[in-house]
Amino acid sequence: MKRYLSMLIVILAAACSAPKPPGDYKTMLSFGPGEEAKILEAFLSLTDSSSIELKEGLYKFDNLSLVQLKHISIKGAGPDKTILDFSGQTQGGEGIRVSEVKDFSISGITLRESKGDLLKINKSENVRITDLHTVWKAMDSSNGGYGIYPVLCNDVLIENCYAEGASDAGIYVGQTNKAVVKNCKAYKNVAGCEIENTTHAEVFDNEFYGNTSGFLIFDLPDLSQRGGHVKAYNNYIHDNNERNFAKSGSFGTTWGVGNAAPGSGVIIQATSDIELYNNRIVNNNSSAIIIVSGFFVDSKAGEKIKASYFPVSKNIYIHDNTLEMGPGFPEPVFAHHTGKILVAIEQQLNQQDASRKGARIPLILYDGISTNVITKEQKINPDSICIKQTGNNLFVNADALNIGTKNWRPGTDMTAFSCK
Fold it and tell me: Residue ranges of the Right handed beta helix domain (predicted)?
């Protein structure tokens, strides 16, 4: 009998802690255009287990905020019907800020033209973002950094969303555990999508196009956790050749997305346990895939090593992708600091080997900076960079530590990095 009671208590406790069904709300509120003051009041006074419906129409706000709640839903009539406009902001930077909310969903809405991030979700759990659009129409450094921005969260789904015009990343997942980004589109952002210092993420069935760079998987120093264990597959990453319009300062610093060269398809930097497969990565005309260490952008990266950061990319598995590149670099690359390095690599390869006859920079670029730079060893491929791709002009080891010296010899021998 005691054993039975103990089991019953465990079952009941688990049931109480589990997320509630999506439609199970104690309070259900509905508003239409012209009721912005009532909506703001509702956000400020909302209680646990509440849903807010926003009917079709245009709404204008300074900002909206939700803090320390459970089981909350915000739902519009569809992203082409329910529009929240923040262009007239006089206070606050973000459009909607959600902090410390458990079981949060938002769907069926377009957010546009805030001064800061359009949707920031901080320290929250069981987050569902679906059928949401975030838009700044102009590609301008005055735009907010992020369209969709969950950070320091657990269990995030971003599905059927669209992001445009962010001066950092349209869709960004940062310092989060367990995330899925699927069936989304990102267009005319600096980075279409970025997974940063995030663990156990899957990114699939998306289209990232017309950005500066299509898709970034980064670990940066001085953050709360180390990322890794990211799978990206069945994505269409194409025509990311636009100028980099990242903000100066926080977004354009040594570590920021300001380093992304125009024409970059995928950039993997200072992270580990990444699998990139079955993607179409085409017409990103500076490089299809770039694998670099933190040393590539900061010579002092080794001084930043700690439990939450290691500067060398490790355990990278790239296989079975479709990779193609156009006949020349996009024009914005020639004015960009990292872009100039890519141009120089192409030129150096062709000067070294006349048989290349003016060939393009190879599709996959590896900076060649391994943990040997830290351990002072001479191991071959100590960081398990594994590439299983077919085709010509596929790979370049940029020999980045010697760029600018007479010893600089980028090479195209992929033997050490071919999957065994």
Answer: 142-294
